[in-house]
Amino acid sequence: MDFDKLREETQTIIDDVIEKTCIQAGQIFVLGLSSSEVNGGIIGKASSAEIGEVIVGMIHKTLKTKGIYLAVQACEHLNRALLVEREVADKNDLEVVSVVPQLHAGGSGQVAAYQLFNDPVEVEHIVAFAGLDIGDTSIGMHVKHVQIPIRPVLKELGWAHVTALTSRPKLIGGERAKYN
């Protein structure tokens, strides 16, 4: 794996997704990551701590400079719980659950985030404004109800398929309503 290329492509993708989603400071951005898929393997079968560190490190750094909160989705073995800073859990009244992510129970992204965050905690549910899915990890359950698919400038990171989601408020009121 060419880690310099991985850093460069991760930066390109996160910059593009931030621009296309119009996410703002104070909002939550969810990341789903399969380092196995990035590495050319099958999701959950070829996890790489190094790949997780590179990708999460770049995304965390970029979001943090913009005041955007990162939530990292766990794998299915932790029921797709999310690792966040305690500040996010407290601010959003999220229920904290007890588990420490491991490479094969949580995934490389969560392990990397656990090391990067100041005060990491796991929560079961979150409602994010937008997110990035690297390796078809199914982040949709964590993004606001009306989701809009985003096509990042790069469609793959390593061998992994890359997609993103943003959201918008629900349109209510029927034919008499007007919208901004």
Q: What does the secondary structure layout of this molecule look like, with pairings?
A:
Elements: H1 3-21, E1 28-33, H2 35-38, H3 49-65, E2 69-73, E3 82-85, H4 86-91, E4 96-97, H5 108-116, E5 120-123, E6 130-134, E7 147-150, E8 156-157, E9 160-167
Parallel strand pairs: 1-2, 1-6
Antiparallel strand pairs: 2-3, 3-5, 4-5, 6-9, 7-9, 8-9
Helix pairs in contact: 1-3, 3-5
Could you explain how this protein is built, in words?
- This is UPF0340 protein HNQ37_001421.
- InterPro entries: Antibiotic_NAT-like, DUF436.
- It comes from Lactovum miscens.
- It holds the Pfam family DUF436.
- By secondary structure, the protein is an alpha+beta fold.
- The chain has one domain (3-168): Rossmann fold (3-Layer(aba) Sandwich), CATH 3.40.50.10360.
- Helix content is 31%, strand content 22%.
- The protein has helices at 3-21, 35-38, 49-65, 86-91, 108-116, and strands spanning 28-33, 69-73, 82-85, 96-97, 120-123, 130-134, 147-150, 156-157, 160-167.
- Strands 1, 2, 3, 4, 5, 6, 7, 8 and 9 form a nine-stranded mixed β-sheet that branches.
- Helix 1 (3-21) runs parallel beside helix 3 and helix 3 crosses helix 5 (108-116).
- The longest helix has 19 residues, at 3-21.
- It is globular.
- The chain starts with a helix and ends in a 13-residue tail after the last strand.
